[in-house]
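Standup notes
- DV: blocked on the single-chain target, sequence here:
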Amino acid sequence: MPTMPLSSYDTTANLNARDVSKAFYLIKKEETPFFNRIPVVAPAFNTRHIWWDDARLIRGSTVGTQYAFASPTALILASTSGLRAGSVLEIANRIYRVTSVTNATTLVVAYIGGSANDTNHIVGAVANFVGNTALEGEDYAATDYNFEIERYNLTQIFTDYVKISGTDRAVRREVNAGDLLLQISQKKLDRIYLALARACWANPLITAPTDNTTARVMGGVDAYLAANGINSTTAAAVTAAGFDDWLLSLDKAGANLTELWMNPIERGKFASGTWSNVTTTLLDSTSDSRGLYVSRYVSKYGHELTLNTDIQAPAGKIRAIKSSDVGLAPMAGRQFQIVDLDKTGDNDKKMIVGEYTLEVRNSAIAGYYAVS
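- DV (later): unblocked, structure below
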């Protein structure tokens, strides 16, 4: 079969394309722990890849306008996010059932018990969301106020090149052509892996180009946290009180708090004597490092999170995000492949090419804490 020159980035049309995506997915580098963890998800079918975040049931809200039980036409909260008809609220030991959701702050409720009588509630009173209940024989109703939220990212083309000289092939005759190509390509795949791991954190979220004369760039985790997350944006020294309050705000929004991610330079801030609620491991003389190694943080509200570091993560932020909420999506048919280029001399030239994007799910219930 003759060599088919590569006239575009369409590797699926090139009959000499060799799929190396499995070799790429097997790479795990010590300096990319976050990227090592994220799964490969379903492929993208467009350069503007869309997914939908769920509307999560938040823990609670606060009363926005004083509630008068004598004429309870409406209950106004700071937010009705995630509530629907049938949701159950608790305010000052009184239990209410939502009969309808008017808008982003207003509910119609019915008092159903918890105390002998209903009562007034002042502005700022805490409303806890404790579940839902339905009436017998109740008919179907589409009653959620907050529906799924559309998010998008762009696909980005990653490339590198391989050149094998005629002499190189001759002096390595004991290695067959396929093994030689894989040996040489492996270093290039490692380099692409590192580039993707850095892009995963730091790439900005940009507007999609209007044509194919401008390179597309996929947005990274920090861009989605900045755009959608619950963030403490004023850089300051980390204090347990401020940090715990930030975690509590995430918890109230419905976040599942299990992981903290940061540049290694930020981890030392948890090892100071002012933090009594951290788990530390004493490293002995046989370890590569000495002293105290901080591995877990427990807030005063009971949130227990692992402390994870990644040298690729930009310094200055401590991030609360689950690695399982981030996914690497290949463009359909554009996973990493090696394709032949035109032969122009005493060498064989190859291109490694792949097109990928990142899904950062549930970024509205993740966030970062800026530190100085």
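- Follow-up: Residues 60-147 form one domain.
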